[in-house]
């Protein structure tokens, strides 16, 4: 038997996932702008910036009462995915 409460919660999760997709689309457009402004492929990975981003995500997660292990893993995966995206879409001028 299917739990009706779980079904309701899953509908909310699906709606939230749609919101995430819209945010990812907006983020991708911004990354496209970044790609246009990079002159060399070697400029794609900025380890210093990545370190700062992950530290800030951890701090903000703690402030908001979110387990930073979750958010840092998500951001690492997102950063890795967008780095891959940048390499695939980089066009030297």
Set down the secondary structure blueprint:
Layout: H1 4-37, H2 47-64, H3 68-89
Helix pairs in contact: 2-3
Describe the structure.
- α2 runs antiparallel to α3 (68-89).
- This protein is extended.
- It is mostly helical.
- 80% of the residues lie in helices and 0% in strands.
Estimate the mean pLDDT confidence: 95
Portion in beta strands: under 5%
Number of strands: 0
Number of helices: 3
Global structural class: mainly alpha
The shape, in one word, is extended
- Poorly predicted sequence stretches spanning 5 or more consecutive residues: none
How much helix, percentage-wise, in residues? over 70%
What string gives the helices and strands in order?
Answer: HHH
Q: Largest beta sheet, briefly?
A: none
Cα distance, first to last residue?
A: 60 Å
Gyration radius, rounded:
17 Å
């Amino acid at each position: 038997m299917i739990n009706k409460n779980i079904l309701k919660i899953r509908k909310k999760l699906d709606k939230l996932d749609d919101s995430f997709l819209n945010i990812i689309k907006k983020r991708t457009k911004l990354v496209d702008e970044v790609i246009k402004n990079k002159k060399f492929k070697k400029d794609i990975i900025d380890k210093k910036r990545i370190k700062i981003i992950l530290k800030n995500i951890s701090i903000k997660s703690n402030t908001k009462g979110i387990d930073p292990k979750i958010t840092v893993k998500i951001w690492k995966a997102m950063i890795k995915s967008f780095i891959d995206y940048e390499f695939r879409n980089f066009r030297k001028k």
